[in-house]
Amino acid sequence: MFSRLVPGPLVRWFARPYVAGDSLDAALELADKNRRERGVRTTLDLLGEGVLEPHQVEATLKTYRDMIARLSTDPRFTDERPTISVKPSAFTTTAQDEARPRLLEIAQAAHDAGVALTIDMEDRPWTDFTLDLCTELFAQGFDVGIVLQSRLHRTQQDLARIPAGMRCRLVIGIYPEPAEVALTDKHAMKERMLDYAAELLTRGVFVEFATHDIAFVERFARDVAPTAPDRCEVQMLLGVPRREFQKKLTDGDFGPKLPVRLYVPFATSWDDATAYLRRRMKESPSVMWLVLRNFLSRKKR
Ligand SMILES: Cc1cc2nc3c(=O)[nH]c(=O)nc-3n(C[C@H](O)[C@H](O)[C@H](O)COP(=O)(O)OP(=O)(O)OC[C@H]3O[C@@H](n4cnc5c(N)ncnc54)[C@H](O)[C@@H]3O)c2cc1C
């Protein structure tokens, strides 16, 4: 409700730290800068879930095609290519099944170009669809990663479906879910992330531990990652101020040196970027205050 009342230009100002810019070029430039200056990896995401019009789906498809083509040929990324992340709901205005051929097309293009893909996990109606699709593509030899949300009780069973060698991003989950099917306490969700990470590593999965809670990331680095450090990565969102902590991870201050990857959303227009932050503000009004706090603390430094 409150997020709808905030004027667009103000939302845009709030969105800036979280969004790479309003073009693919801006996102690629940032990915290159983060790699060169900080040794931090990137996954690129085009903002656009919850599309309403068929032309938006077409535009999303086109941008992903362009993104894949650029990533496969851009000399800046010869050694270390950013991966791409997609949200299934960005590929349909109606039924889920409509998204499937479009996601297959993106997966094929990424595979042909040698670009790794992660299919983000959305709210519960998407869970089975996404799990089925990711595991099917992986079984066909595609470099496709999945996301599991620790808040959902079903995830304990879903772990068993993730094959050795697959990439699995573990998150608490951003979508509010009812207590019958999910935990409601964030601390408990993060404890589960650690348990699930340990279980997945034992089973040969590549674990992408994605949270900004540094106490839990430190526990992951100290207690869990040493069992298979070459199959671990820490992931965070662009804009959350964790630079010094990320350096400690890549330097190995807590145990093995761990790679860090930033999730870098970009838009093709500031209208889309503004819509993205409005959604984030709606899900979590505290986002606004976090951005403001980050901005003020940067000013002080
Ligand atoms: C790389 C990545 C990919 C993700 N992909 C998915 C996905 O596919 N599906 C899905 O459901 N969810 C996804 N998420 C979101 C995730 O599920 C959580 O909602 C989100 O990470 C916030 O939870 P947290 O674990 O960081 O814990 P929190 O308890 O929310 O945050 C930990 C601490 O970090 C700080 N913090 C958190 N957010 C911000 C911020 N915006 N600005 C400044 N400080 C902040 C706060 O100080 C907070 O105390 C992803 C998250 C990341 C990092």
Compact description:
This protein has about 300 residues and is of the alpha/beta class. The protein contains 12 helices and 8 strands.
What does the secondary structure layout of this molecule look like, with pairings?
Layout: H1 2-5, H2 8-15, H3 24-38, E1 41-46, H4 54-73, E2 83-86, H5 96-113, E3 117-119, H6 127-139, E4 144-149, H7 155-158, E5 167-171, H8 186-202, E6 206-210, H9 214-224, E7 232-237, H10 243-251, E8 260-266, H11 270-283, H12 286-300
Parallel strand pairs: 1-2, 1-8, 2-3, 3-4, 4-5, 5-6, 6-7, 7-8
Helix pairs in contact: 2-11, 4-5, 8-9
The structure holds flavin-adenine dinucleotide.
Describe this structure in words.
With 301 residues, the chain is an alpha/beta fold. It folds into two domains: 1-19 and 267-301, no CATH class; 38-264, TIM Barrel, CATH 3.20.20.220. It has twelve helices and eight strands. It has helices at residues 2-5, 8-15, 24-38, 54-73, 96-113, 127-139, 155-158, 186-202, 214-224, 243-251, 270-283, 286-300, and strands spanning 41-46, 83-86, 117-119, 144-149, 167-171, 206-210, 232-237, 260-266. Strands 1-2-3-4-5-6-7-8 form an eight-stranded parallel beta barrel, surrounded by six helices. Helix 2 (8-15) packs across helix 11. The longest helix is centred in the N-terminal third of the chain and has 20 residues, at 54-73. The protein is globular and about 45 Å long. The protein starts with a helix and ends with a helix.
